[in-house]
Amino acid sequence: MVERIKSLFRDTLKKEGKWSRTSLTMFTSFSICVLVGLIDFFMHGFNTEVFFGFLSVAVGSKISDSFSKKLEK
Fold first, then answer.
1. Taking the C-alpha atoms of 54, 28, 34 and 53 in order, what is their torsion angle to the nearest 10 degrees?
2. pLDDT for 18-35, tens place per residue?
3. pTM for the predicted model, two decimal places
4. How far apart are CA 51 and CA 43, in angstroms?
5. What is the DSSP code string of 10-57?
């Protein structure tokens, strides 16, 4: 089971054998969003501002990466 999880991470977060900065950023942002959302949920109840705040960080990272790739070409 552990090998399958490792394989999933390698296939998802790597492009052409190298770690993808975009995939790692999105994964990290989503993980932080879930963690902080759960902490806030258990302390104060559901708060949409926390969820959308971290979600916007992930989307912003994707958009900025897309723009930088277009500028490089």
1. 0
2. 888 877 887 887 788 788
3. 0.55
4. 14
5. HHHHEETTEE-HHHHHHHHHHHHHHHHHHHHHHHH---HHHHHHHHHH
